[in-house]
Amino acid sequence: MQAPPPGGMSQTTLGCLIGAGIIALALLIAGALVAFALRESTERMAETVDRANPANIIQTVLPPPTPTIVVRPPAVLQVRAISELATAQSLLSTIAEVNQARVGNVLYEKLVLIACGRVKAGVDLTQLKDSDVVVMDDGKTVRVKLPRAQLLDVYLIDDSTQPCTTRVYDRTNLLLIPESKELEAQAREKALEAIRNTAIESGLLSDARRNAQIAIERILLNAGYERVEFIEE
C-alpha cells in the first residue's frame, strides 16, 4: 500500500482544492466582465436619454442668445435739441390812454389805443447744464431740472385782416397842430406792458411749464427711457 503525502492530505483532496480555486477565479473574472459590460451599457443609455432631452436638442441646434445692449442717446442732448420750447400762448386785448401837454400845461393831446397782442411763454432749454438732466442708476429713469418758464415773445398785432388788431380809437387835438408820433408810441408801450402783466397774472407761465414737461417727457420716452421725473429749480 502507498503511503499518504505529508500533512495527511491525499493527492485526490489536493486536486479537488486546486480545481475549486480555478473555478472560483474564473467566476470572479466572469463577474468583473459582466459588471463592466453593465456599466458601459448604462452609460450609453444615459447618454442616449440626455441627447433625446428637448432642452439639450434646442441648445445644440440653436446657439446661445447674445446679450441685448441698449444704447440710449444722452438725455441732456435730447432735451437741448429742442432749444427754445414755446409751450403756451395767449391772445389778449387792452385799451391804452395817454395824454401829452402841447401848450404849456393848459392844452393836451389825448390818444386812445385799442391794442390786441399775442404772448408766447415757454422754457429756454439752452440754459440747461449737464447736471440738470441726470440718468439715474437704473439707466431707465431721467431726472430733469427745468429752468423757470418765461415770456418768450410779446407783440402787438397790426395786421388789419386779423379779427383782433391794434388801432387808434380816438385822438383829441384841440389845436390844429401836427399830431405827435411819440404819443402813439407811448400808448403802444403802455399796452404791451398791460398785456404782459395780464398774461403773467392769468397763469400763462404755469401752463408753459406744465406743457414743457409733457413735451420733454414724450421726447425722452421715445428715446428709450421709461420714466421722467421733474424737480423744481
Describe this structure in words.
This protein is an alpha+beta fold. The protein is 41% helix and 28% strand. The protein folds into 2 domains: 51 residues; 157 residues, no CATH class. It contains 5 helices and 7 strands. The strands form 2 sheets. Strands 1, 2, 5 and 6 form a 4-stranded antiparallel sheet that branches. Strand 1 and strand 2 form a beta hairpin. The chain is rod-shaped and about 170 Å long.
Q: What's this model, at a glance?
A:
Strands 1, 2, 5 and 6 form a four-stranded antiparallel β-sheet that branches. The chain is 41% helix and 28% strand. It has helices at 11-52, 54-61, 75-80, 181-201, 204-222; strands at residues 84-103, 107-124, 133-135, 141-145, 150-156, 167-173, 227-231.
Shape: rod-shaped
Indicate the mean pLDDT.
76
Radius of gyration, whole Å: 50 Å
Helical coverage, percent range? 40-55%
Regions with little confidence, pLDDT below 50 for 5+ residues: 67-73
Number of strands: 7
Q: Helices and strands: which structural class?
A: alpha+beta
Taking the sheet with the most strands, its summary is: 4 strands, antiparallel
Beta fraction of the residues?
Answer: 25-35%
Number of domains: 2
Compute the number of helices. Answer: 5
Distance between the termini: 130 Å
**Strand/helix succession:** HHHEEEEEEHHE
Characteristic key phrases:
rod-shaped, 2 domains, alpha+beta, three-stranded mixed β-sheet, four-stranded antiparallel β-sheet, 233 residues, single chain
